[in-house]
Write a structure and sequence with these properties.
eight-stranded antiparallel beta sheet, single chain, mainly beta
Amino acid sequence: MFQKTIAISGLAVVLVAASALVTTLPASAATADTSVTAAVASGGLSISAPGDLDLGAITPGQVGRAPLTAITVTDLRAGTAGWAATASISDFRSASLGTTIPSEDASYTPTTATTTGTATVTEHSTTGGAQATTVQEAADVTGNNSASWDAAIALAVPADALASDDYIATLTHSVA
């Protein structure tokens, strides 16, 4: 029994000595540090919208409406700057008659945007006109984000409007 105690005690001394050797580096040991750099890439700011919208046949003195779906702002600038999406519409012109329905008779009512990333987006309704007017605005932006919304487009056709094949206008979306 005495021999077992000595053997176990001897083993404990060897283990303690071995652990001291493992944790203590010799005086000749060296280290090397490497500086690691990463750049966060910055992209652009863009807007997309459907190509066509048909308000259908509207009786003079009435209002025609149609939904414009899937207008999207994509902000890949990876920064903190907000953005504003604007819309403007030209006069509605009849190619066959040469007459117009003024753009001021149109309206644009956006829905609340569905967003990704970090941004507080607020919608703004507008009456038509050739002047660009803010329809969605992003604040409190951090990093990349996007916003998608629909809009109700309406046109009040004057009671004295003349029948034509089509009155055509251009709805322009921009973002900055």
